User: Which sequence fits this backbone?
């Protein structure tokens, strides 16, 4: 076995972007133009403004095309809501790359109403319309594994949501993602801000997308192909999986961890490591997937997408 994820072999370069953000078009505190300005000023290459797609806000898919230029682009999107999870809360489904005329669901406000479209059906409709769809903030939402598994059309799970870290210490998506992967689902993992700008919920989690051009079309195709990794700061430069080991090249970190099925995990620790070899002996036998997490001296992480074995 010799597998290198496509994010490290596809042509092009890495572009930094945030896929989950809000503005005054829903419950954020900054106008769309100012949100885009701040992300560009912070060094981001692209942004998806994903305001809440409910009737209270007029079902917005915000036109961010005027804020594009030669160095910065945007992808149209929204955070979709319809139907109830097992805990009775409204579904939150991230959809990036929606057409501007995507048809609203019957979601007048923040509470589920009888007869409305289900969350899984809404997610499937978004995918059919061309969007990259992710299960949003599973820990914050209180998702069960059954909830998450019902979104069969999703491309990804939010492994980290910076707004949920800042606002309620429920940022994590690893448990849900790993259980879906163990069940055979092929999913990718995204880190996002979910920024509203009324607390320190911005510039904390992003995706690094490998594409030839920084255009909405190229970025969206790369996201769907899994040609990216997610980060809070560290850089992943290559990941290579062999029968008995994983080789990782990255920016300086103190831990390199490989995770797999069930309790399968192994780590290498050190100081300012830029390369690491992690053994796969032991519990990894038969694991349907592997994934890599690196952690720097400040505790910031980067995550590879799952590698299906």
Assistant:
């Amino acid at each position: 076995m010799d597998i290198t994820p496509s994010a490290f072999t596809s042509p092009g370069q890495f572009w930094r972007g945030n896929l989950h953000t809000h503005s005054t078009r829903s419950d954020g505190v900054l106008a769309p133009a100012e949100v885009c300005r701040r992300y560009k000023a912070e060094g981001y290459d692209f942004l998806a403004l994903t305001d809440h797609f409910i009737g209270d806000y007029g079902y917005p898919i915000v036109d961010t095309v005027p804020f594009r230029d030669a160095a910065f682009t945007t992808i149209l999107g929204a955070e979709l809501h319809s139907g109830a999870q097992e805990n009775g809360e409204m579904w939150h489904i991230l959809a990036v790359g929606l057409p501007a005329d995507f048809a609203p669901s019957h979601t007048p406000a923040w509470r589920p109403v009888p007869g409305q479209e289900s969350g899984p059906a809404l997610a499937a409709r978004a995918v059919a319309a061309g969007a990259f769809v992710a299960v949003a903030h599973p820990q914050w939402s209180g998702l069960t594994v059954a909830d998450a598994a019902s979104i069969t059309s999703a491309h990804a799970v939010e492994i980290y949501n910076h707004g949920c870290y800042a606002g309620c210490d429920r940022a994590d998506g690893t448990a849900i993602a790993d259980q879906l992967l163990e069940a055979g689902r092929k999913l990718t993992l995204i880190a996002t801000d979910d920024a509203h700008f009324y607390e320190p919920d911005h510039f904390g989690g992003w995706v690094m997308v490998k594409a030839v051009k920084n255009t909405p079309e190229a970025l969206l195709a790369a996201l769907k192909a899994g040609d990216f990794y997610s980060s809070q700061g560290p850089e992943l430069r290559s990941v290579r999986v062999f029968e008995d080991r994983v080789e990782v090249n990255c920016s300086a970190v103190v831990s390199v961890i490989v995770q797999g099925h069930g309790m399968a995990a192994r780590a290498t620790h050190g100081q300012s490591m830029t390369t690491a070899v992690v053994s796969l002996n032991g519990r990894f036998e038969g694991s349907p997937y592997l994934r890599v997490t690196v952690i720097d001296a400040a505790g910031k992480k980067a995550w590879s997408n799952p590698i299906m074995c």
User: Anything to note?
Assistant: Residues 8 and 30 are 36 Å apart (CA to CA). The chain has two domains: 2-230, 236-308. The chain has seven helices and 17 strands. The chain has a mean pLDDT of 97.
